[in-house]
Amino acid sequence: MIKISPSILSCDFSRLEEEAKAVLDAGAEYLHMDVMDGMFVPNMSFGFPIIASLRNKTDAVFDVHLMIEKPERYVERFIKAGADIITIHTEACACVKEVLETIRAARKKAAVCVNPKTPIEYTYPYLDLCDMVLVMTVQAGYGGQALIPYTLNKVRQLKEERERRGLSFEIEVDGGINEETAAAAIEAGADVMVAGSAVFGKKDYKQAINVLKNA
Ligand code: DX5
Ligand code: ZN
What we know:
Helix 2 packs parallel to helix 3 (75-81). This protein is 33% helix and 20% strand. It has helices at 16-25, 48-55, 75-81, 96-105, 151-165, 182-188, 197-200, 205-213, and strands spanning 3-6, 30-36, 61-67, 85-89, 109-114, 132-136, 170-174, 192-195. It has one domain (3-213): Aldolase class I (TIM Barrel, Alpha-Beta Barrel), CATH 3.20.20.70. It is α/β, with parallel strands linked by helices. It starts with a strand and ends with a helix. It has an eight-stranded parallel sheet. Bound molecules: D-xylitol-5-phosphate (DX5) and zinc ion. D-xylitol-5-phosphate binds next to strand 2, strand 8 and helix 7. D-xylitol-5-phosphate binds at residues 7, 9-10, 32, 34, 65, 138, 140-145, 174-177, 194-198.
């Protein structure tokens, strides 16, 4: 069964606890947290205090997507803040292997991510160390963009590589997932779909999540 990881980037931050609990009650498996530094991506979002304060309110799986340059500088602080899954971009880091090892040594789940134009092969040297691989289906930086269709070929290719190597990491897709695109993402091989506007932009979160799961 496909998992849904609603991106709190699209929630009402003045009611963060309520919004998080509402999507979890509505059937979300993870909570996706988009951390942006204004350098790796041309946008800023939130960091440690928001994650740590929400950590005190829920046992949910925090799926933390670091869109930051040199994530090795901060990964330990994200672990301390309460991240369960930490995703770093291959494009932003010159020591991916070491960072993944640090995450796993803390008994957290490690993931790598590639933007649409980065070949999926760039994740291959790290697959043994990954609990998840995130395939961006839009250019990282903003919620509410349209899914780029060719990115789903990368999902297919990654799934084949996983089978070939007998590995078991989850494949996550992020960006532009909605009732029109979800079926294609599932068909391509996604195990987890991030959804921001397609969940928080709807009145009924349960219905929104069910629509994606049953696409
Ligand atoms: C984009 C972020 C996404 C984004 C998804 O940089 O990584 O997680 O919030 O938003 P939607 O689902 O609205 O495309
Ligand atoms: Zn994300």
